[in-house]
Amino acid sequence: MRWKAVAMMVVLLLAGCSAAEAPTPTSGMVPGTVEAPTLPAAPSVDLTQLRPLVVQSLAAHLNVAADQVHVESIEEQEWPSAALGCPEPGFQYAQVVTPGALVKLSVNGQAYAVHTDAQDTLVLCNPDKPVLLEPASASSSQEEQPTVSAQTNAQQVVSQHAADFAVDASSITVLTDEAVTWPSSGLGCEKPGQSYLTVLTPGFRVIIEQDGVQYAYHAGRDRQFFLCTNPGAPAQVDR
Question: Does the pLDDT of residue 136 top 90, yes or no?
Answer without folding.
Answer: no
